Recover the amino acids of this structure.
């Protein structure tokens, strides 16, 4: 067996730890979590005095409850708009709730009145929800909800 000169051996052993170390600033947590852009398009007609309401959002990071992206009462006879949502993690559920808060049990929505929302994920229609005079009011009001569950992304 041939012996390495002492200087070559010392240089090699001094450089060995540097060659085996990884970048201390590199993340070792794995790939970034998957995110999706969510938009909610809503339209409605003959909404005067119905208490039209749109609510959209997702659950909080710790799972303790909802984080609202939009929570608004719609005034006026017609509604049309788009809610552009921040990026949503695939580990979260995303929901949209529509309601006519002034239509209580025993009453009906007037014919022709409606509120509709389309949920688009990465600009692809995933779910739609609509309330109109075909929906029977619960004890609180006319209300429907659509959800994209965390396992449906």
């Amino acid at each position: 067996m041939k012996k390495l000169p002492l200087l070559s051996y010392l240089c090699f052993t001094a450089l060995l730890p540097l060659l085996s170390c990884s970048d201390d600033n590199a993340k070792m947590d794995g790939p970034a979590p998957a995110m999706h852009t969510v938009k909610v398009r809503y339209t409605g007609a003959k909404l005067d005095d119905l208490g039209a309401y749109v609510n959209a959002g997702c659950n909080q990071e710790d799972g303790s409850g909802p984080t609202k992206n939009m929570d608004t009462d719609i005034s006026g006879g017609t509604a049309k708009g788009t809610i552009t949502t921040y990026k949503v993690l695939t580990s979260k559920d995303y929901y949209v709730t529509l309601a006519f808060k002034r239509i209580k049990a025993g009453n009906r929505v007037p014919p022709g009145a409606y509120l509709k929302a389309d949920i688009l994920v990465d600009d692809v229609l995933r779910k739609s929800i609509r309330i109109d005079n075909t929906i029977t009011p619960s004890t609180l009001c006319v209300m429907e909800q659509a959800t994209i569950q965390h396992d449906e992304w």
